[in-house]
Here is the input.
Amino acid sequence: MDSKMQGLLFFCSFVFFSSIRDGYAGFTSSFVRSEFPSVDIPLDHQVFAVPKGHNAPQQVHITQGDYEGKAVIISWVTPDEPGSNHVHFGTSEDKYQSSAEGTVSNYTFGEYKSGYIHHCLVEGLEHNTKYYYKIGSGDSSREFWFETPPKVEADAPYKFGIIGDLGQTFNSLSTLEHYIESKAQTVLFVGDLSYADRYKYTDVGVRWDTWARFVEKSTAYQPWIWSAGNHEIEYFPYMGEVVPFNNYLRRYTTPYLASNSSSPLWYAIRLASAHIIVLSSYSPYVKYTPQYKWLSEELTRVDREKTPWLIVLMHVPLYNSNEAHYMEGESMRVVFESWFIKYKVDVIFAGHVHAYERSYRFSNVDYNITGGNRYPVADKSAPVYITVGDGGNQEGLASRFMDPQPEYSAFREASYGHSTLEIKNRTHAVYHWNRNDEGKKVTTDSFVLHNQYWGNNRRRRKLKHFILSVIDEVVSI
Ligand SMILES: *[C@@H]1O[C@H](CO)[C@@H](O)[C@H](O)[C@H]1NC(C)=O
Ligand SMILES: *[C@@H]1O[C@H](CO)[C@@H](O)[C@H](O)[C@H]1NC(C)=O
Ligand SMILES: *[C@@H]1O[C@H](CO)[C@@H](O)[C@H](O)[C@H]1NC(C)=O
Ligand SMILES: *[C@@H]1O[C@H](CO)[C@@H](O)[C@H](O)[C@H]1NC(C)=O
Ligand SMILES: [Fe+2]
Here is the structure.
């Protein structure tokens, strides 16, 4: 063996070992933050203020209304009577050339009687356009605005926020305010909205109402993409309420029909350069169930030439090394993980665990009952798993991580905060996790996310070219 060849081998083994050492050395932050107590904000606080005027619309929130970002669903509640069902909208302030008509409904939950809940689909919008809209009538009408996303296209830039397990405490308020400061355009919400289920009897409905007024300063102006968590289930036989997700489904609609889903609890949208798949951790998902069948079809509809970014949302994380909710994601992991690898999902966001954790690209699909394979291994085709269940609800933080930190876990910290994912083009996105720190927003974990479809193909071609040229050189000596 000549010295050049020895040099090459040495170089290779050096890269190999150093990547094991540095690449998979996880970090557990020991940061201890001062936090507000984990109790809900009192009902008479101004963050829950009811807008002035008879029957004024409140709890205004919007979500994407179709499969491509040319429609929104606008929802609101009128407290005293059904009132107008119309949304007036247009592209300049005070001039509402168009209108759309929605639906209105009311319901009871135990003894609680809801207000009149309006949902209105506003469609046929132009991409990349600011729209103003007005709801309600006379003196008590209210005006808001939103911006439509760019057209579905491979290099369309877009900035998402990721929030989970928000609740309605002063920690939640910090998270919401920091999120608004981040100037992201759409929230990917990973479940557990109001924590109203921590109350009893009529207070459950009351706390769903306060939560929707609390988040209105963001939800009225930009889409929040909803997914359901365990706190949305609300199975309460003691008060005769046994239909799961009742309060949630009455109030929060999703565009599930546009992706041919049979349930608002799981669906997909395309938004700018991203294809976003929302799953339900608390609906059947094993083989032969509707959610399983729908996901198998939706994955074949993903076109990475048009939407390079494939993002999945769910409530329960598939990889979690916190003692809280440990292993709860295992059953879904067993069913879906091989698909996430086959379809090269870029990133999976989850909540549920009230802490922050990010994984390396690892998978555990080679499990074989007679072979020796039973541990997660590094896998370039696997998604990055990110848990952001740290919105700040009244249950407090999950501060005990398993020790030692498993190999797949890259970064973990038990603090409140939110994340942003800023897509730059088809190959690059910049990710940040922002901790709430003494009222300030502090970026604590960040990295460049390389697209699994475009980034990797290009990197592989480059690498292949490099290796061939080195071998060429060695052979020609
Ligand atoms: C809905 O509102 C109507 C009056 O507008 C009322 O008569 C009815 O009882 C309400 N329904 C429920 C389920 O609360
Ligand atoms: C949903 O199904 C309808 C009818 O089969 C079809 O026309 C439409 O393209 C489907 N939508 C999606 C997003 O695949
Ligand atoms: C499981 O492992 C055994 C022993 O290594 C091997 O013979 C078998 O083919 C594997 N089965 C599968 C399904 O991979
Ligand atoms: C994508 O964005 C990154 C980061 O801004 C930049 O370095 C890269 O050159 C861009 N790639 C393309 C194909 O435009
Ligand atoms: Fe949860």
User: Anything to note?
Assistant: The first helix runs from residue 3 to 23. The pocket of fe (ii) ion (ligand 5) is lined by residues 165, 192, 229-231, 315, 352 (CB under 6 Å). Helices lie at 3-23, 170-181, 202-219, 246-251, 290-301, 330-342, 454-475.
